[in-house]
Amino acid sequence: MAKVYASGTHMIRRGVLLACSGVLIAGPAAAQQAPVERFAFEPAQQQREVSELRPLRIAKWSSLTFAAGFAVYGFSRSNHADDTFRSLEEACNRAPARCASRGPQGAYVDAELEGMFQDVLAADRQARSALIISQIGVAATVVLFLLDLRNAKPPDDIPYVPRGLSIGRNCESGDVCLRWSVNLPR
What we know:
Elements: H1 9-31, H2 43-46, H3 55-94, H4 96-100, H5 111-147, E1 164-169, E2 176-181
Antiparallel strand pairs: 1-2
Helix pairs in contact: 3-5
């Protein structure tokens, strides 16, 4: 008489027991195998150049440096214009009559105040020009970085070794073996 099981749990337990016994039997045979070199590189490949000085690489970093330099200069000129304008406002608050008198073109009659106002205008023009140049430089830098994304040569071929459980024949001895590999981070 054959027994009929209500669930497949007994079948699963038998399968797990068979797999474990296969590992125990195949384990010593697998331990006797010679270790396989996963990544066998030639010495020339190990001495791969880390940094190549290509014209595009030099151009992109130079462009970024100049864009940053113009941005810093633009912000410093803007701060100078703000400080000078604050000084002009303080002078006008201390002596409102000095600022009220203007010439026919709208310029201050007082030469010191007019000099401060012209300095504010010049610093604002310089700041605007420098910031526009820095924005153009940033756009050029982005384009150069994107152009440099393409590689001059393809990357080295690294063989793929899949993780997990594998069942197969040993090429050297012909035994059936069950292998479970886990790649641990270094």
